[in-house]
C-alpha cells in the first residue's frame, strides 16, 4: 500500500494537475447535489475486495462525483457564509496532509505548532486582548464555542461549592448562531434568548438579568455576544455587554466566527470596540481569513482557565509532560486530543502574502456589500431590508412570497449560474422571507451582482 512505484508517481502528478486546475478556475458551473441512488448508478461499486484502482476511482471522482458538490469559493456563491481559500493556503493544506503531523502535543508537532502559533499571535493582536491572551485552532466555530462554554462553566463551578450540582445558564440573543444552542445542549446548560435579532445592547442584557429569579441568577455564568451575526452581519454592543458582564461577574464570550475576519479592516474595526474585554472569542479562519476547511479558532483572555477545563489525563499521556517535550500543547485548550495542525495553511498564506493583503481582501468584501446595497437602491424591483452590515446584505424582491424566492434559488442553482439562498428577517412579531448576500470572495465582480439582481426581474 505504501511502496513507491511508478503508479504512485503518476497518481501524484494527476492529483497535482487536478489541484492546479481546480484552484486556477472557480468561475465555471457552480455544482449541485444529486440523489445518492443517482450517484450510485453512475459510479457502481467502488469499495470492493480487490479495489478498483486509483486511476479508476479518480476518474469517477472527476467525471461524476466532484460535480455533485457546490464550489463554495465560486464568485457567485453568496449563500450562507461562502469561502475563498487562498491558493497558498490550499497548497499548504496538501503539505500539511503529506507531513503527517500529530498536532496535539509540542513533543510531536513542535514545528507545525510553532507556525500555528505565529498565525495565532496575529489573530490575537487583532482582538486587542491583553498580554497573556492566546488561543488554539479548532475544527470550526462550533467546536470553538463548545470549548469556550466548557471553560466558562468549569471556571464558574470552581468558584463556589454551591455551583457544583447546579445546571448552568447562559444568556444570548436570537441573533446568535445555532451552534450556541446546540453546544449548550452538549454541555447541558440552559440558554435564555433575548428577543432581538438586531444589535444586543448592554441595557437589554441588564434588564434580562434583572428579571431573573434568584435561582436563575445563581445558575447564570456566561453571556454570549455575537461579533457579526451570521444572518445579517450585526455586531452586538460589545462595550455595553462587557460592562454588564464585569459588574455581574459573568464570563463574556464573543462569537465572531464569521465577523472576526473583519477585525483587520480599518473601515469597521470600531464596531468591535469592547471585544478586547472578552474572556473568550471564537473566530473562523475558514470563513473570512481565507483558509481551507476546516479551521476555527478559540482565544482566551486567561488560557490557564481553558487548560484547567480541557487538559486530558492518562498514563499513556504522561510522557508529553516530560522535560524534553516542554512547549505549547494545543490539546490542553480545546475539546480534541489528536488534531490536524489546521492553522498551518493559514500560517503559510499569511507568510506568503503578508497581513496587508488580508486587510485589502476583507475590505473588498465589505465594499462589495456596499456596492450591492447601492445597486439594490437603484433598481425598482428590489429594495433593502436594512443597510448592509459587514459583508451581509438583506433585501427583498418587491411582491415576492417565500415560494418565489425558493423557486428563484433553485432555478439559478440548477442552471449552475449562482447560489443565493433566502433567509428570514424578524421585525416586530413577524418573520419575513427575504434574499441575502454574504460576500467573502474578493473575486466576486460587480457584473456578478448585477446579473444575479437582474435574474429577479
Ligand atoms: C458559522 C458560524 C458558527 C459555526 O461555525 P462552524 O465553523 O460552521 O462550526 C458559529 N457562530 C457564528 C457566528 C457563525 O457564523
How would you describe what is shown here?
- By secondary structure, the chain is an alpha/beta fold.
- The protein has two domains: 93-353, 3-Layer(aba) Sandwich (Aspartate Aminotransferase, domain 2); 355-454, Aspartate Aminotransferase, domain 1 (Alpha-Beta Complex), CATH 3.90.1150.
- The protein contains 16 helices and eleven strands.
- The strands form two sheets. Strands 1-7-6-5-4-2-3 form a seven-stranded mixed β-sheet, with helices on both faces.
- Helix 4 crosses helix 13 (344-353), helix 5 packs across helix 13 and helix 8 (202-210) packs parallel to helix 10.
- The longest helix has 24 residues, at 355-378.
- Residues 81, 140-142, 145, 177, 179, 226, 230, 255, 257-258, 284, 296 line the site of pyridoxal-5'-phosphate (PLP).
The tally of domains stands at 2
Q: Please name the CATH topology of the largest domain.
A: Aspartate Aminotransferase, domain 2
- How much is the average pLDDT? 96
Helix content: 40-55%
Radius of gyration: 23 Å
| Second-tier CATH architecture of the largest domain | 3-Layer(aba) Sandwich
Under CATH at level 1, the class of the largest domain stands as Alpha Beta
* Overall geometric form: globular
Ligand species: pyridoxal-5'-phosphate
Largest beta-sheet details: 7 strands, mixed
Strand order of the largest sheet: 1-7-6-5-4-2-3
CATH superfamily label of the largest domain? Type I PLP-dependent aspartate aminotransferase-like (Major domain)
Strand content: 5-15%
Unreliable sequence segments = none
User: What is the tally of beta strands?
Assistant: 11
Overall SS class: alpha/beta
Q: Count the helices. How many? A: 16
Distance between the termini: 56 Å
